[in-house]
Design a protein that fits this description.
heterodimer, A: 645 residues, three-stranded mixed beta sheet, disordered N terminus, B: 509 residues, 72% helix, globular, membrane (chain A)
Chain lengths: 645, 509
């Protein structure tokens, strides 16, 4: 085993003290909030949103207390297990429900509850005029509870409960305005594509049970090194299918763009900062499985590499500010996935980037929401331009997010994304060159499309506003969360990266890596990346700041048109699955009515013939029943006699 | 043999039906009150009986009663339940009051006595069939139960022409199955020790058959009857008609409880009575089960009638139940038993909410709905919750059982389990497509003035939702009752669970 880890995988301390044994409150508090708001109904309309806010912050406070209790412990004793109750017990299948608070899950807890709570606050103002604001907060609380269950669960099956819970919350929130049929379709699509991924995850869990006789992290991780490489490869690939669904990775990425139908705070929280990164969590958490399955790891890296390029290309062509950000999310998660697939060399950086991305992408989505708020809910960047003057706070906070994501030196993305690029250059043979260069080139594309987005919205030669647009800055309930996230976008990377603090913190979970060197020296990688980023920004500057931007999109090149159509992902899915599925269903309905049923109707007619005619059966109910019973009794008696003889 | 609990649980609704029949015409509207009261009494009695039941010995038959009935034919009046029988009796007596309450305003006054009287008879029969410990007595209940159901479908519900057709179709299928089964029942008696108690199931368990062929033929005769009852592909087509034409409350009892007689029979009769033949037939049956899972789900996607759609989803679910039974692992079989219970609740919720929708709209055609989430949000939430339970969302009880079935199958037949797992995508499609068509989109004119769920309707749906959520989080109370019975069944069949394929370190399980 190449894993050098302080603690044996799967060995955890028992929870001690109020803070640790109360870890279940992290899930229970927001769940209670959701329950009160949903069951209470309209009666809670007046104050419901504040209850949602309070429950979310309460979970954050408890999470922070937990974090400090872990911080006080020795590095090897920072994985706390809390047993809850016997969940499923049947035959050989024995599973208790419990929570695992360790270095990895607490990082997620803090991200989810902190960013989540800020977004709760923002939503109070953003959803102010929506008659269903209370229901919105109920779903947000449901999401937070499910997400915390997902990351705190101590077994794959319990994690799956949270996994589907966030999927449900996502479905409900994408379709929050489902009186618009397109939004209802988007919600359904997200759920269905995720279910395809769930087939993989479910089978992975079953395969683990078949192999290890258990699906708890403890048992699976402790025994993973005794399993054959084949088994681990199969399990790893199946887990990846699940991760692809949840994290919108190729080839299950098609739902994320449509998911932007949800209110913008939802896009920020669920479809940028937290839920969509659950796939990365799954792969990193399953490190002990992947470590023994290099082929599965390679596939993870390939999926990540494809997706990061795919998202970046799509991001260059979108004029819808939310869809452009969604494409960017896909691409950034591609980076994380790639890093997660590299194993101990990259896993900690995947989580690092996940945390910084959670801040800057959530911040930018909230900024986009603020823009929409001021622009009559328009999302078309071609009708924006030079908003910097009228929305100063939004401009500055968004600007910090933009600089962070493109990897501007010393801002958050610089620390986390560049580390991934460096890690991608580690290895032997063709891989470091292919993956490293891909990741590096994509950094340049990222700089281009994010600058395009930023310039089209806030800068540029001219204002292209619609006549009825009167942009204005958003209220403080919205701007304060944006400012806090912007501070995180700027400095979180520095705080966690400069001392490598986060990487060391995560080492017991992700495994420490040795002294592997990238195939290019680090300064060369950093320098080249910065050059590419500068080129990307400069290109965007020439095309979208210096030149005027047409309000109607030009026809564009073949690639542009393809990218606008998300590289034909929907057409492919429709051609391959949807239409054949519809034909099959129609054919089966036809056969079921004619064929299967017809054959049996013949039988019915036969029986009818015994009692008279079919017509008689339909009119003389009682008589025919009597006749049938008589036949039954005759046969019965005959049979009895036969036995007696 | 102490107090005859099971007889009393069955006799109470039977007496209730007599009371309802004897009601003067002026009191006909009171029939529903009597039915509700009586079914609640039966429910309370079931709870008390369950408390007498020793969970630790749930693998053995308890609450037994034994009386000679037709001695010269070897027929006894023998009742008793192990854990499996107990949960099925409980499911029946829980759902009947719910269905009575659901039908509260749906039956014409002049027909009310007949309707509720028949429901009470049906309840008595259901208790009997799940409690019978004499094969002939089981057969009698198995056939007699057709009578109330036949009239409940044929005399109530939708369009007269269609409901009569559905009733006759139901009867034709069931009688065919019953007659085929009768041959097997008699042949089995013949193969057994005979005598005054020759039909006792205990006497017929563990027989040495003259030839494998004989055992297989007897197995097939029982299995066909149960497969029609359950129903699984390709003998399923009676169910969509019957469920679509029956009033919602009857559809619940039909699909939620009566069809379980089929899977109950497979698990508690086919397997212990014919262990060799069961193992022999398992691969074929697993194939039929997988076809049912996928076929039922695809057909559900293609339906335009709400109740037919729910019926097809049940065919898919029965596929899962049969899969778990014949995978021959304790996880799979315990999962199937739990599935029977959970499916009872989730299908009940679906059918009853569907009934509330149809009652308001006057049509079961899905395309005539739309936009209801805005007009009747609580109704929409009820439908969505029931639907999520049907698609086995984790956190709901159905997830636990479906996962157990799939895992129990996977450890012996990974490819079969993988195919069946595709059903979870199809399940999401049939539920969410329906939800989209009926509840989302702009508010339409037809729903002007619609009222959201009344208190009575909330009282119908809420208990089901509470049970679904509770058993999703904490299925232990039910599993504790089921597990010992399953390990007995596994011993009777002579199969063991496969060991984990990876050598597991010392102290770990």
């Amino acid at each position: 085993m190449t894993l050098i880890s302080a603690a044996e995988p799967g060995v955890y301390q028992a929870a001690e003290g109020t803070v640790q044994s109360g870890a279940w409150l992290l899930v229970a508090l927001p769940a209670l909030g959701a329950a009160i708001l949903l069951v209470g109904g309209r009666k809670t309309d007046k104050w419901g949103h504040w209850l949602g806010v309070v429950m979310s912050w309460a979970a954050f406070v408890w999470g922070a207390l937990l974090f400090f209790s872990l911080l006080g412990a020795d590095a090897e004793e920072r994985a706390i297990h809390l047993h809850l109750f016997t969940w499923i017990q049947a035959g050989t299948f024995q599973l208790d429900a419990g929570l695992l608070v360790d270095q990895l899950s607490i990082a997620f807890v803090l991200l989810v509850t902190f960013v989540g709570s800020l977004i709760h606050v923002y939503s109070v103002a953003y959803m102010e005029h929506d008659p269903d604001r209370r229901r919105f907060f109920a779903y947000l609380n449901l999401f937070v509870a499910s997400m915390l269950l997902l990351v705190l669960a101590d077994s794959y099956l319990l994690m799956f409960v949270g996994w589907e819970g966030v999927g449900l919350a996502s479905y409900l929130l994408i379709g929050f305005w489902n009186h618009n049929p397109a939004y209802a379709t988007a919600a359904k699509k997200a759920f269905i594509v995720n279910r395809v991924g769930d087939v993989g995850l479910s089978l992975a869990i079953m395969a683990m049970f078949a192999a290890f006789g258990s699906v708890s992290f403890t048992d699976v991780f402790a025994n993973a090194d005794s399993a054959s490489e084949n088994k681990l490869t199969v399990i790893g690939l199946l887990l990846l299918v699940g991760a692809c669904g949840k994290s919108a990775q190729f080839p299950l990425q098609s739902w994320l763009g449509d998911a932007m139908a949800g209110p913008t705070p939802v896009s920020a929280l669920i479809h940028a900062a937290t839920m969509v990164t659950a796939g990365v969590y799954l792969v990193v958490r399953s490190g002990p499985v992947y470590i023994g399955a290099p082929d599965a790891q390679l596939v993870v890296v390939i999926v990540g590499a494809i997706t990061l390029v795919y998202g970046a290309i799509v991001g260059c062509a979108k004029d819808d500010i939310k869809k452009a950000l969604a494409a960017s999310t896909m691409s950034q998660i591609g980076y994380m996935m790639l890093a997660a697939g590299l194993g101990p060399v990259g896993a900690a950086f995947a989580i690092f980037h996940l945390l910084t991305h959670g801040f800057f992408k959530a911040g930018m989505f909230l900024g986009a929401g603020s823009v929409m708020h001021g622009m009559n809910d328009s999302v078309n960047m071609r009708t924006f331009g030079r908003l910097s003057g009228v929305m100063k706070i939004t401009w500055v906070t968004f600007g910090l997010g933009w600089l962070a994501i493109i990897g501007f030196p010393l801002l958050s993305g610089f620390w986390s994304k560049d580390k991934i690029i460096e890690a991608a250059f580690i290895g032997e043979g063709w891989r470091p060159w292919v993956f490293g260069l891909t990741a590096m080139l994509a950094a340049g594309i990222t700089a281009f499309y994010m600058s395009r987005l930023f310039f089209m919205t806030f800068q540029g030669k001219e204002k292209r506003w619609n006549d009825d647009a009167h942009p204005h800055e958003s209220p403080a309930l919205m701007t304060v969360p944006m400012m806090i996230l912007a501070i995180g976008s700027a400095f979180l990377g520095l705080a966690l990266g400069v001392t490598n603090g986060l990487v060391h913190w995560l080492e017991p979970v992700t495994g420490a890596h040795g002294e592997e060197e990238p195939v290019l020296s680090v300064p060369v990688i950093t320098g080249a990346t910065l050059v590419l980023v500068a080129v990307g920004v400069a290109l965007a500057w020439r095309m979208y700041w210096q030149a005027s931007v047409p309000v109607t999109a030009p026809r564009g090149s073949l690639l542009t048109r393809a990218a606008r159509h998300d590289l034909f992902q929907d057409d492919i899915n429709e051609g391959l699955f949807m239409r054949p599925g519809q034909y099959l269903t129609r054919a089966l309905v036809f056969v079921d009515n004619r064929g299967v049923d017809g054959a049996v109707r013949g039988l019915a007619a036969l029986i009818g013939g015994l009692g008279g005619r079919l017509r008689l059966l339909q009119t003389g109910l009682v008589r025919s029943y009597a006749a049938s019973m008589l036949a039954g009794v005759v046969i019965l008696l005959g049979g009895m006699l036969a036995v007696r003889l | 043999m102490d107090f005859p609990w099971l007889t009393v649980i069955g006799a109470v609704p039977l007496a209730g039906s007599a009371v309802i029949a004897a009601l003067p015409k002026a009191l006909a509207p009171r029939a529903r009150h009597v039915a509700l009261g009586v079914s609640l009494v039966a429910f309370v009695l079931t709870v008390v009986a369950a408390l007498q039941f020793d969970t630790a010995r749930a693998g053995e038959i308890q609450l037994t009663e034994l009386h000679s009935w037709i001695g010269e034919f070897g027929v006894s009046y023998a009742l008793g339940v192990n854990g499996i029988g107990l949960v099925m009796v409980a499911l029946s007596t829980v759902l009947v009051p719910v269905c009575v309450l659901a039908a509260w305003n749906e039956v014409d006054e002049e027909k009310a006595r007949l309707f509720y009287g028949l429901i009470m008879v049906l309840e008595a029969m259901m208790v009997g069939v799940f409690a019978a410990r004499d094969l002939f007595l089981f057969y009698v209940f198995f056939e007699a139960i057709l009578i109330p159901v036949y009239f409940l479908i044929g005399a109530f519900g939708g369009n007269e022409q269609r409901r009569r057709y559905a009733a006759v179709k139901f009867l034709s299928y069931s009688l065919t199955g019953g007659l085929i089964m009768l041959v097997g029942v008699i042949a089995l008696y013949h193969a057994g020790p005979g005598g005054e108690q020759g039909f006792l199931i205990d006497q017929l368990t563990g027989l040495q058959f003259s030839s494998p062929a004989a055992e297989r033929l007897m197995f097939i005769s029982l299995f066909i009857a149960f497969a029609i009852k359950a129903p699984i592909w390709p003998v399923h087509t009676w169910l969509p008609d019957a469920a679509a034409e029956a009033p919602a409350g009857v559809a619940v009892l039909l699909v939620g409880v009566l069809d379980k007689i089929g899977t109950f029979g497979m698990l508690t009769l086919c397997l212990p009575l014919f262990p060799g033949a069961s193992k022999w037939a398992a691969p074929t049956i697993l194939a039929l089960a997988v076809v049912s899972v996928l076929y039922g789900a695809l057909l559900a996607i293609g339906q335009t009638d709400l109740k037919r759609l729910i019926a097809y989803t049940s065919i898919s679910h029965f596929g899962f139940i049969v899969l778990g039974i014949f995978a021959m692992t304790s996880t799979g079989q315990a999962g199937s038993t739990l599935y029977m219970v959970n499916h009872g609740f989730s299908t009940a919720a679906l059918f009853l909410v569907a009934g509330m929708l149809i009652h308001r709209r006057g049509s079961a055609d899905i395309d005539e709905y739309g936009g209801l989430q805005r007009t009747t949000p609580v109704l929409a939430a009820g439908f969505l919750l029931a639907g999520l339970s049907s698609l086995a969302l984790p956190g709901m009880s159905s997830f636990v059982s479906e996962f157990m079935v799939l895992t129990g199958t996977f450890i012996k037949y990974p490819a079969v389990a993988a195919l069946a797992t595709l059903g979870i995508v199809l399940a999401a499609l049939y539920i969410l497509l329906t939800y989209q068509r009926m509840f989302t989109g702009p508010v339409k004119e037809y729903s002007n003035g619609w009222k959201d769920l009344s208190t009575r309707e909330v009282l119908v749906v809420a208990p089901l939702v509470v049970v679904i959520l509770f058993l999703g989080v904490y299925p232990k109370p039910v599993l504790d009752v089921i597990n010992p019975a399953i390990s007995t069944t596994m011993q009777q069949v002579g199969v063991t669970d496969p060991e984990p394929t990876v050598a597991v370190e010392g102290e770990n399980k």
